[in-house]
Write a structure and sequence with these properties.
Length: 147
C-alpha cells in the first residue's frame, strides 16, 4: 500500500489482496454498528435454565425440534417452531419479551439462537438450554404455582 500524489490530491493505492480483505470485512463491520437491545445469555445448563425460567417473568419458551424429534411432553405454554423454519417464522415470537430456546439436547438450539440474534434485536434477553431440558421439574413447578 502506498500513497500517490496526483495534482495536489493524495490517493491511497491498494493492492488487490487488501481490497478483497476490506470488501470481505465491510459487511461484518457494518452489521456490528446496528444497535441491538438483545442481551445474549448464551447456553445455560439445564439447572441454570430451570432457575432462569422460574425467575423470569413473561418468558417465552420456544422448542425448536423437528417434528420427528418433538418432545411428547414439552414445557407448559411453550411455542414450537422447528429450527429449519425459524428463518420464515421468527416473527411469530412475541415482541419485547425474553426468549429461551430449547431442543432435546442443546444441539439444534444453537442455529435458531444465532438466527434470532441476527433477526430479532427487539428481544431483551435471549438464551438456550445447552443440554436436556428439565421439562418435568418445570411443569410441576408451574402446576404448583397455579394452585
Amino acid at each position: 500500500m502506498k500513497n500517490v500524489n496526483l495534482s495536489n490530491k493524495t490517493v491511497l493505492s491498494l493492492n488487490l489482496s487488501t481490497l478483497v480483505i476490506v470488501l470481505f470485512l465491510m459487511p461484518t463491520c457494518l452489521k456490528a454498528q446496528i444497535p441491538s437491545k438483545t442481551k445474549t445469555l448464551g447456553g445455560l445448563t439445564p439447572s441454570e435454565a430451570l432457575k432462569y425460567m422460574k425467575e423470569t417473568p413473561d418468558l417465552v419458551i420456544v422448542e425448536v425440534n423437528e417434528p420427528v424429534w418433538k418432545l411428547k411432553t414439552g414445557f407448559i405454554d411453550a411455542m414450537w417452531i422447528p429450527h429449519t423454519q425459524m428463518s420464515k417464522r421468527f416473527n411469530e415470537i412475541p415482541k419485547n419479551r425474553p426468549v429461551l430456546i430449547h431442543c432435546g439436547g442443546g444441539v439444534v438450539s444453537v442455529p435458531a439462537y444465532k438466527e434470532l440474534i441476527e433477526k430479532r434485536p427487539d428481544i431483551p434477553e435471549l438464551s438456550y438450554i445447552a443440554g436436556a431440558p428439565q421439562v418435568k421439574a418445570y411443569n410441576e413447578w408451574v402446576k404448583n404455582k397455579k394452585k
